[in-house]
Design goal:
Length: 307
Amino acid sequence: MSVFTHHGTLPGFDGATGWLNSEPLTAEGLRGQVVLVDFWTYTCINWLRTLGYVRAWFEKYADQGLVVVGVHTPEFPFEHDIANVREAAKEMRVEYPIALDSDYAVWRAFGNHYWPAVYIADAEGRIRHHHFGEGGYEECERVIQRLLSVEESLVSVADEGFEAQADWANLESPETYLGSEQAQNMVSGDGADLRLNEWALSGDWTVESRASVLNGADGRIAFRFHARDVNLVMGPPTRGTDVPFRVLVDGEPPGAAHGLDVDEEGHGTLSQQRLYQLIRAPGSITDRTFEIAFLAPGAEAYCFTFG
């Protein structure tokens, strides 16, 4: 797509409820600079897989006139908590300005509908390019270079941790919400006979609109999946509370397939409201049954994502 295509004018950030890493920025104050606006929310795996590129563009082109603005528009209730966003930004090395969009005012001003979404505006404030979802990295960077009048090699990023690109060829399990508002494929029973992409709860749970909440100890979630990675957005009921858990795959400890947040025996601790990587399977991918058992009450489970 040509860099000279016009997609409207940068609407600005007047509706932001606060800022991190910067004083408030305005569309008028940014005139004369190329601006990349990145809509995100910190538990979104789709955004996390783009972060390495956005961070690299910020680091490479800031001295050449690029301003990166991250607009944090929360999906889940706990993502409205500024302390959570500040902690996540620090851990993820999001060092460019962040507009906090707790009321969705900036989201609406852009007419945005996606996490992640990138909008690139020229020095006159005209939006010249946008990209929704993952991918499109080379095209975005070429647009940045043309608007800055530079021609250099493209960035390379580390393909690791949460930022590793999905194994698309083997990904057959979709994002799955565990609250009644968007839940799909939930079945009754103990999870022993699940079909692909079905899931089940066992124990004393309350299925609320946005999450499944564990009332007693020894609650479990089972999911029949086909993917390299299993991630789960979850957290304790309040900051500072720890809930131990254990993960099994096909009834066994994950071993070498353990994710960032569990050990080889499958043990982990729920201590923050965030995305947890529970499985990253090496080798060939087949249908398998994932199970997580919480060993104390209070866990809140929001959404499975896969990679």
